[in-house]
Amino acid sequence: VQLVESGGGLVQPGGSLRLSCAASGFTFSNYGMRWYRHVPGKEREFVASIDKAGRSTNYADSVKDRFTISRDNAKNTVYLEMNSLKPDDTAVYYCNTFLLFAQYWGQGTQVTVSS
After folding, report:
1. Which residues neighbour 25 within 8 Å (Cβ) at sequence distance 6 or greater?
2. Under 8 Å between Cβ of 76 and 24
3. CA atoms within 13 A on the CB side of 29
4. pLDDT 10s digit of each residue in the chain, 115 long?
5. Contact 18, 67 (CB under 8 A)
6. CA 79, 15, 9, 49 torsion: positive or negative?
7. How far is CA 64 from the centre of its chain?
8. In degrees, to the nearest 5, what angle opens at C-alpha 78 toward C-alphas 72 and 82?
9. Cystine design at 44: which of 11, 38, 54, 56 (Cβ 3.0–4.6 Å)?
10. Closest Cα to residue 46, out of 57, 54, 56, 35?
11. CA-atom Rg of the chain in angstroms
12. In this predicted structure, what is the pLDDT of residue 80?
């Protein structure tokens, strides 16, 4: 199982970014996917999740109405569209899946929101 995030960077407050997570090594369309974020010194925080078909999504209250999770099962990729970014959104963002009783994580991508 391999998860590779991309799309992070430096953005001004109010700006937008789209993160991608390319998955391989398993049947992507059979599993739900999640995004988490982590700030050093704090607990890793759940951001969003999507079911295997892409029909059901959930969001942390802190990102609801600003972030959108989606997936393309033909490309084995999950996305996180982030709008109206705030300095508090600064973190390393990870995609995640759970299969065969194990959690899998990507290497993360840094998002920095600063003027």
Report:
1. 1, 2
2. yes
3. 5
4. 999 999 999 999 999 999 999 999 999 999 999 999 999 999 999 999 999 999 999 999 999 999 999 999 999 999 999 999 999 999 999 999 999 889 999 999 999 999 9
5. no
6. negative
7. 13
8. 120
9. 38
10. 35
11. 13
12. 98
Contact assessment for residue 8 and residue 107, using Cβ atoms and an 8 Å cutoff: no
Residue bearing tokens 């199982």: 1
The token duo for 6 is 């991309």
For the chain, how many helices (H) and strands (E)? Answer: 0, 11
Q: What pLDDT does 100 receive?
A: 83
Phi-psi group of 65: left, alpha or beta (phi > 0 → left; psi -120 to 50 → alpha; rest → beta): left
| Cα–Cα dist 36/2, whole Å | 16
Burial 10-34 (b: 16+ CB within 10 A, else e): ebeeeeebebbbbbeebebeebbbb
Distances (CA, A) of 34 to 37, 43, 107: 10, 16, 14
Six-digit token string for 92 = 């390393």
Count of all residues that appear for the chain in the document: 115
